[in-house]
Amino acid sequence: MHGSIAELDRGNLAPLARLAMMMRTESAALRAMILEDFIRQPCRAGPPPPHCWAVCPYCLAVDVEQGRAPYVRRTWTHPLAVYCALHRAPLVPHGNSDIKIASELTLFGDLQPYEPRDNLLDRSHFDARELILHTIDVLEDSTKVDERDRLTDAVSDIVDALATNMYTPNSGVAIRLIEAPVMRRRSLPGSNELPEKWWLDVNARERLLYVRMALLFLSEPAHPPRSSDKGPFGANWFANRYAKNYVGWVSCAMEDPLLLLATELPRSAVSTMNYRSFAWPKRLRQRWSSAVSAAILWATSAVPAAGGST
Ligand SMILES: [Zn+2]
């Protein structure tokens, strides 16, 4: 084909003509299978199928029931897509699904068949429900291109932040801030520098996990009187971490989880995030800049509870 099928899915049209010839079909028919966002803005190819595939098991079951070959929906290839719009259920890595898009021979050839799976991704109790519905809305509505691009940039940048090692040596990768309380497990190793669009290069399993965790950071902070909810970051995370000495005052705070990233990321990563956040939705950019200001005040205050920052 002179190129990978994963590359074609991300908007690189170079292999299109040759593939159309091989399949004895029209180029236009194949082009129509590629997400419009990628044709507008081609991105680097991800891992090859089946590792790049996120699927809705309910949609695949409907395909089988109705007697057609199960197939990957175009919207599922968008990096922001983590839920099925039809079933309002989490997308899962192809490895999680009992119904397969193609046979082992097609997918793996002579290689030993292996697919990553993650059973925690079948569950949804921890998700930022409102923001998940918003992502479905901007992905489905063809008139919301600008809103979709801005939200995509914000989530992509938070995913990059979550894949970065934290400022304090040996404290690990930033996704631990949320993966430990929600999932109670170890995280993948992180990178020392802030990556750029890390989600394009990883398997669907990692992408789905990191995007759903990023949406928890971006969801609107709970109003303080509701802070008796345990929430995904653990009970009283804000007071325990930032306000041990100001018990009375802390009830006034908007407990924005973006503050966790602003205080824990390396300074160079915070600075790069400041620059990138110009492309975010306005409201999220405002929250990020407030979080960075609060992080600076916290780190430079004389309060001894300021955990190791000098
Ligand atoms: Zn579905």
Task: Report on the architecture of this protein.
It is a single chain. The chain is mostly helical. Among the domains are: 1-45, no CATH class; 145-300, no CATH class. It is built from 14 helices and 2 strands. The chain has a two-stranded antiparallel sheet with strand order 1-2. Helix 8 (145-162) packs across helix 10 (204-218) and helix 12 (258-264) packs across helix 14. The protein is elongated and about 70 Å long. The chain starts with a helix and ends in a 10-residue tail after the last helix. Zinc ion (ZN) binds at residues 56, 58-59, 84, 86-87. Zinc ion is lined by residues 56, 58-59, 84, 86-87.
Can you summarize this structure?
The chain is mainly α. The protein has 14 helices and 2 strands. Helices cover 43% and strands 1% of the residues.
Secondary structure blueprint with pairings:
Layout: H1 5-9, H2 16-23, H3 27-31, H4 36-40, E1 54-55, H5 57-65, E2 92-93, H6 104-108, H7 129-140, H8 145-162, H9 176-183, H10 204-218, H11 237-242, H12 258-264, H13 267-276, H14 282-300
Antiparallel strand pairs: 1-2
The structure holds zinc ion.
Zinc ion (ZN) binds at residues 56, 58-59, 84, 86-87.
Task: Identify the notable features of this structure and list them briefly.
310 residues; mainly alpha; elongated
Distance from first to last alpha carbon: 56 Å
For the largest beta sheet, what order do the strands appear in spatially? 1-2
Class inferred from helices and paired strands: mainly alpha
List cofactors, ions and other ligands.
Answer: zinc ion
How many helices? The count is 14
Q: H/E element string?
A: HHHHEHEHHHHHHHHH
Query: Mean of residue pLDDT?
Result: 91
The number of distinct β-strands equals 2
Radius of gyration: 21 Å
Low-confidence stretches: 306-310
What sort of overall outline do the alpha carbons produce when their principal axes are compared?
Answer: elongated
